[in-house]
Amino acid sequence: QVQLQESGPGLLKPSQTLSLRCTVSGDSITNNYYAWSWIRQPPGKGLEWLGVITSDGTTYYSPSLQDRTTISRDTSKNQVSLQLSSVTPLDTAVYFCSAYGTLENALKAWGQGTLVTVSS
Description:
By secondary structure, this protein is mostly beta strands. It has strands spanning 3-7, 11-12, 18-25, 34-41, 48-53, 59-61, 69-74, 79-84, 93-101, 106-110, 114-118. The strands form 2 sheets. Strands 2, 4, 5, 6, 9, 10 and 11 form a 7-stranded mixed sheet that branches. The model has no long low-confidence stretch (mean pLDDT 96).
């Protein structure tokens, strides 16, 4: 069973770049059964999909955030990363990485999430 764990700084100042890592265990991020998504939830609001990286490294981003978002991977560490540039307090949220099952077309697993607060 795949497991995911997010990590990264919890407090940022406006204009900084958010950088989070998702360490995957239980399967390889190159396994084509999965794609790896980043999703966030601002306080009191719903879930927002940020983007995804597929097993072959192809990326897709939310149109509203694509100018600021970069998703990458390190296959040697079995990690997926998220960078979000020029953050503002509106980017304050719990950030999740998730495993999307390409056969089932459904999310298969979630990390526990990590709170990122943007404040001056």
